[in-house]
Amino acid sequence: MEKARVIAFYLPQFHPIPENDEWWGKGFTEWTNVGKAKPLFKGHYQPRVPADLGYYDLRLPEVREAQAELAREAGIEGFCYWHYWFGNGKRLLERPFNEVLASGKPDFPFCLAWANHSWEAKEWNSEEAKRNNKILIEQTYLGEIDYTKHFYELLPALKDKRYIYVNGRPLFYIYAPDFLPNDFINIWNKLAIENGLDGIYFVGQIARKEDEKIKREELILKGFDSVSIEPQRRIYATKNYVEKFFFRLKTLIKYIMLGLSFRKIKVLIIDYKTSIPFFTQPKFDLQEDVIPCLLPGFDHTPRSGAGYSLLFHNSTPDLFKKHVKQVLDVVAQKKNKLIFLKSWNEWAEGNYIEPDLRFGKAYIKALNEAINESVKQL
User: Fold this and answer.
1) Rounded Cα distance, 182 and 128, in Å
2) Is residue 195 part of a domain?
3) DSSP letters along 234-296, please?
4) Is residue 258 situated within a structural domain?
5) What dihedral angle (degrees, nearest 10) is formed by the CA atoms of 143, 83, 339, 323?
6) Domain presence at residue 33
């Protein structure tokens, strides 16, 4: 039997760009928030310090090669690079992927995920959010001419030998599918066929608090081939009120044990171990047009501080391995073996498996072991 195909989301915001210099100061990158993060309570794992790769700059090809080698070691099939197109040719953070595409290196599979949403100040800086949650750059949809321009901008990537295909078509992930105009998928599929492809394999993300069953049906009707949901969003979306009551009770107890003030710290602090049963919904995830997702951890406080955000406390490689094995057990029963990993390197959101000073390569090892043990059971 075919083994699971794990594809890791990859954040390119580890190099300076003029827009970030203007908004946040000269030299701003993802490392800016990571480096200044502070623990909010005793035992809170902050700041997080990178180990093997250091505070890297993605403009360096040596860094990108080293990342690919570590990903192979983890058993990851490829990277899903976040892609930003705001309309009329406006892109941001495109340099790392453009260089990967142009150079042919690393020789490691990839696909693209369109983060099709406006950038708001609150996403990157908690103090700015308190003053004025302004729009930094707006996502626009300008019609067929612009959709066509967007397609041809990415066509060389879609035809690259490293691009990840599903059912004979290049995979393209949409972060906010509800924002996508109704004619977009048809236009892109038509253009793909005209350019020698069999169409595009579109994956739409289900947002938090949405009913998974209803939203899946809506997105499939809209033309998407599959849907996926980030595990942390399921914490909000559960419809089981008994589960929700006890879950919130455990969260309240966690606050009391940590001696936290609800008035001062508005972070939703959740025990990672307690959350694992919510991350996988076997009945839903067994459907062939549903792609499960893995979450090694989540901590948005480097960006949001003590303001409204989410924090999974006490994640460990062993617990992550348990979560991975649960997802692999579900996927083993399916023809569609795709699994997303959130994420390879989202350091300021606390979801990454790159080596850090506390755990080294333990998350990489945990993922690899879980995949190998699953293969042996097939």
Assistant:
1) 35
2) yes
3) HHHH---HHHHHHHHHHHHHHHHHHT--TTT--EEEEEHHHHHHHH--HHHHTSTTEE-EE-S
4) no
5) -120
6) yes
- Amino acid at residue number 111: C
CATH of the domain at 54: 3.20.20.80
Whether 326 contacts 287, CB under 8 Å: no
The radius of gyration of the chain's CA atoms, rounded to the nearest angstrom, is 20
Greatest Cα pair distance in the chain: 62
CB distance 130 to 191 below 8 Å: no
pTM above threshold 0.85: yes
End-to-end Cα separation, the chain, in angstroms? 6
Give CA angle at 68 (156, 288), nearest 5°: 70
CB 291 within 8 A of CB 228: yes
- Residues pairing with 360 in the sheet: 356
CA dist., res. 5 & res. 26, Å (int): 39
Residue corresponding to tokens 């390197």: 345
Residue 278's alpha-carbon distances to 232, 275, 310, 331, in angstroms, are: 8, 5, 15, 16
Tokens of 168: 């004979």
Residue 107 domain-assigned (yes or no): yes
Tally of structural domains, the chain: 1
pLDDT in tens, 59-72: 999 999 999 999 99
pLDDT tens, residue by residue, 258-298:
665 555 667 888 889 988 998 999 999 999 999 999 999 99
Tokens of 6: 């794990």
Tokens representing 114?
Answer: 């369109």
Pure H helices in 159-240: 184-194, 212-222, 234-237
Other Cβ atoms less than 10 A from the Cβ of 242: the count is 8
Give dist(CA 135, CA 86) in Å, integer: 13
Domain interval for residue 346: 5-238+279-297+315-377
Beta bridge partners of 9: 80
Q: Measured at the alpha carbon of residue 282, what is the angle toward residues 276 and 286, in degrees to the nearest 5?
A: 140
**CA–CA gap between residue 290 and residue 230 (Å, rounded):** 12
* pLDDT, tens digit (0-9, with 9 covering 90-100), for 308-328: 788 999 999 999 999 999 999
- 183: helix, coil or strand? coil
pLDDT value of position 268: 82
Contact (Cβ atoms closer than 8 angstroms) between residue 31 and residue 345: no
3-state secondary structure of 226: strand
